[in-house]
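Below is how a single chain appears once it has passed through the pipeline. First comes the sequence as given, then the structure the pipeline wrote out for it. We keep one example in the README because the format questions we get most often are answered faster by looking than by reading.
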Amino acid sequence: MSATLRVEVRDGRLVLSGELDHTSVARALAEGRAWLEGSRGPLQVDLSGVTRSESAGVALLLEWLRAARQRGREIEFLSPPRQLQSLLQFFGLEGVLPIRA
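Resulting structure:
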């Protein structure tokens, strides 16, 4: 498991900082699901602290989107770094995920 990813809830938002890679997304997925279940306000994920992302990070965001929609809730991803935005564009997902820069 990557020690370089931090997942925490701040001001009702899920805040990620560090690297989203194949070793860190499993923990982030579990913590994100728990946050989805317990959250009552708007679902917002702050990505401004992500320093690097592999395609596993993109899969993580898609899974959170699916999980939120299954619960009839909307989710918004805030301030993704350029590298993550490039991955979304590469995979043709820039219009699929609700992103706010």
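The radius of gyration is 12 Å.

See the next section for the split statistics.
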